[in-house]
Amino acid sequence: MKAMILAAGLGKRMRPLTDHCPKPLLPIAGKPLIAYHLERLRSAGIQDVVINVSYRAEQIIAALGDGDSYGLRIHWSRETSPLETGGGIQQALPLLGEAPFLLVNGDVWCEALPRPQALKGNDLAHLVLVDNPTHHIDGDFGILAGRVNQTSHPRLTFAGISVIHPALLAGHVPGAFALAPLLKDAINGGRVSGEHYTGHWVDVGTPERLAALENQLHAASRHIPTS
What are the Nucleotidyl transferase domain coordinates in residue numbering (predicted)? Predict the structure, then answer.
């Protein structure tokens, strides 16, 4: 299975930190945010990773190269201007192929990755859902017996981590468009499964959340026993 990391955003909520540094390269506890994703994908057995880039694309490409230093093969999908989540994925489909792929938002931090086998039957997506953070208290979706819906309670927050079948985007007009409406249509059609992850997850969307995550990681590293 291949994976895709969404990394083409402008990082407006992260300003002024992103005025000269793209969000995927912002350092957290000594390494770029995107490095955590790459390391986890490699640990999960992923070998090929597609990354879409737009804002300060050359900085990201120069920092990560072909992925060899992470034990991966990185394939770049360049966007002249950001195509949003759906448009970015659609443009990258020739690099991803016809099989389901892991999709990770570049601006989240999480140790969870769904199993490739999570997408079954004629489902179009499998979503990782997490407890609602204080900045998104109403959540996004419900889940019952492993099926994602828009009606049940309690509602949970989409973690920005999923397994996607390319057919989810089939036939959409090229250009900039969001993924969320396509997911909601698939949910209403009963073609989206999900799982509730209760571990550590952070939407690293603001300087304050980035600083809080860095403090947490530093604190955790101080409690790791040495051999």
Answer: 2-114
CATH number, residue 16: 3.90.550.10
Residue 99 belongs to what domain range? Answer: 3-222
Specify if 88 maps to a domain.
Answer: yes
Q: How far are the Cα atoms of 30, 91, 100, 165, 170 from residue 123, in angstroms, in the given order?
A: 39, 22, 10, 8, 14
Contacts of 224 (CB under 8 A, 6+ apart): none
Reported as a single tens digit per residue, the pLDDT across 86-116 is 999 999 999 999 999 999 999 999 988 998 8
Question: CA geometry: angle at 64 spanning 226 and 47, to 5°?
Answer: 80
Residue 112 domain flag = yes
Query: 227 lies in a domain?
Result: no
Contact in structure between 70 and 160 (CB atoms under 8 Å): no
**Pairwise CA distance, residues 78 & 88, whole Å:** 9
For 104-136, b/e burial (b = at least 16 CB within 10 A) is bbbbbbbeebbebebbeeebbbbbbbbeeeeee
Evaluate whether residue 217 is within a structural domain. Answer: yes
Residue 136 vs residues 61, 139, 141, 192: alpha-carbon distances, Å: 32, 6, 12, 22
| Cut 0.85: pTM above it | yes
Distance CA 157, CA 136 (A): 8
CA-wise closest residue to 186 among 201, 170, 174: 170
